[in-house]
Design brief:
Largest sheet: 5 strands, mixed
CATH architecture of one domain: 6 Propeller
Oligomer: single chain
Shape: elongated
Helix content: 25-40%
CATH class of one domain: Mainly Beta
Strand content: 25-35%
Distance between the termini: 76 Å
CATH topology of one domain: Neuraminidase
Number of strands: 33
Radius of gyration: 43 Å
CATH superfamily of one domain: DNA gyrase/topoisomerase IV, subunit A, C-terminal
Structural class: alpha+beta
Number of helices: 13
Length: about 625
Amino acid sequence: RVPNLLVNGSTGIAVGMATNIPPHNLEEVIDAAIHVSHSPNAYVRTLVQKYISGPDFPTGGRVLNTEDELIDIYETGKGSVELRGEYEMEGKTTIIITSVPYTVDKGKLVGKIGDHIANENVPQLSDVRDESTDEVRIVLNLKRGADAEAAMAYLFKQTKLQTRFHVNLTCLVPRENAEVGQPERVNLQAVLRHFLAHRMEIVVRRLQHKLDKLERRIHLLEGFEIIFDALDEAIKIIRSSENKSDASQRLRHRFTLDDDQADAILETKLYRISKLEIDAIRDELEEKRGKAEDIRGLLGDEAARWNLIRKELREMKKQFGTERRTHVAGPDDVHDYTEEDYIIEEDRYVIVSRDGWVKCQGSYSDLDSIRVRDGDEVGWALPGSTRATVGFLTNKGKCYTERIDELPYTTGYGDPIQKHFSFEDRERVVGVVSFDDRALPDPKPDPELEPELFETVREEPDVPYVVALSRQGRTVRFSIDGYREPSMTNGRTFMRLEEGDEVVGAHLAAGHENVCLASKEGRVLIFPVHQIKIYKGAGKGVTAIRLADEDALLGFTLSDAARDGLKVETNRGREEIVRTTKFDVTNRGNKGRLVIKRGHLAEVFPETTEIRMEES
């Protein structure tokens, strides 16, 4: 009598196919079915906007999808319904969860929330308990002054208090001359049309069945009507007959009856065919003839049958209809989940060694006091809040970003960086950037730039950049903005390298520094940072220095003061510092200046990158 496929929903898996239909509100579905009975080609958008606003789960909850998203689900027959439990405040320190998403085990959900509270993952909450009876009542105790919305946003993100129902409107659709239906993914309108076609078929068969029964009864009653005019003679024939068969034969012969009519008369008690019962039988005959005529009228009038179907649907709605339990809230009611809200903010130092060991410390007196493994040394010591992130730039041209709170907090050696990310073979850290604002330089455009170029620089994003150089003399400059957020374990690519090439270093730049570099064959070059093209995505870079085929870049640094520079050593043990007081600042892309006539440069000595927090 109603579209149970939509009202009750359905879930099933077969070979190569599956169905997952959510339950819906009976009143809404019936209203939509009545509309489709009037307009078989009704748009799905109309059905959703006017009648079926979305699934209606028996456990309540809130649907967070937009109207357009729901329309798309009902038009295509597939999609995900975002569903979350509901809550209300009881006083200022108690949160009451009043509903949980469909199919979610309430007991397991309460246990999971308890685990998060015990592990201090959600610092706003102190306890959880289940006080449910017939209605859901999960009590959350809120710490004094804590933000209830932040606590619930965490639970929605990290537990099954918010889930997805994956809709798949796959049904067995009837086909002509087929004994069984054919699986097909259909839209909302098609489901209702198939239901109405089925109802029409059922109504026709039901009416025909009623008509057949009425016509059989009318036929028998007409037999009684025939003998009523000669009732005494009929009774005399019955009494004078030798047996039932003889009586039946004589009645058929005398009154022109058929076998069914004669048998019905013989099986009726005599008092029922007396004169006192004649009027009752004639009244029944008239009634049955009237009903049969009405049914014939319905069978011959399709519009009348549709009115009957609509009438029956309205009766079902009146008898069994209930209010919607699931509220379609839309995205306006969605709380933003911010991971930082659940991290206790503390200042730390990120310590990274040259060999790739990483840790955090609350403080340290000097670099020599930091514990590292034998033969290793501190490469970077950068400040940052536990809520900030840190980026590890590697020789493979990738940046791996992690929240500082997730790094080991220890005065020991820490963890190998590979424990936190999926490094390739021989991949190593060549640069570290703390994305805490206190560790970032203020942008300072070069004051010596020509006015036209200066205007161009001013139009660039007002943020620090990272400058990276490769072994083959290529260089990129890119904004840190695209690398602040935590990355996947395989990182983000910032430089696309040629085969055999690798990044030798990466440094933060404010925009006014000079690049000081040195090659293996003893060539050095100093040029302004602003000459390096800014890349919005991963690029192959531009030429920093033109190298001979057998030459390779050893290293570089960024200089923002006259005495700063890159310390290098020749294969004969002589040290040299590449700085602006000794070598001229030229342009990017030339061969540089040869600083040794014999031998080659063997090593560069990168200084430890250290930034100290101001004492409060």
